[in-house]
Amino acid sequence: MIKQDVQVPGAVVLLMGRSFSGKSTVADELAQALDARVLGYDAINAERGLRGGDGIPVEDWLRTNTVAHSRAAVLLDADLTVVVDDTSSPRFLRDEWRQLATDSRARFVLVFIDVATEVIQERLLANRGDAARHDVIDSVMADHLDAFDPPTSDEAHLHFDDTVHINTVVAAVRAALSQ
């Protein structure tokens, strides 16, 4: 657990990575460390009666994206920091978050949690054993892994794998937000 010591006002910290990469864990730790609010697409989908692991039509994902942006705009207007917990793929989603940050005169940091497919599969199977979160059915996971759109060289981002300690992620995000 990271001790909260400084509020970082008016920022969007956009997490990205494939399902079961650890984004939600990172989001919770960053939110505590930065005194930020988490906007999780899974939580918004659940409010809407949707489960991503079963497959959600594109129109419904876009509606969830709209809800997340609306909530973020309110928080940014209050000069609060938002940690967005989503796969953030494809790229147009990341571009929309960058634009919202720009329009809100907020700082923006993209954090890519890059975990090997083998580790993701192990986590998925382990989850099925204890149901810590909803399952992602095999066909949905296969489509997700095939279609995932990682950041490109022209996208400024912080890049971490599953071996990095959360303190390193927090320090890097803080540093990026202070620039």
From TrEMBL:
Highest taxon, organism lineage: Bacteria
SUPFAM superfamilies cross-referenced by the UniProt entry: P-loop containing nucleoside triphosphate hydrolases (SSF52540)
Family matches, as Pfam families: AAA_33
Annotated InterPro entries: P-loop_NTPase
Protein name: AAA family ATPase
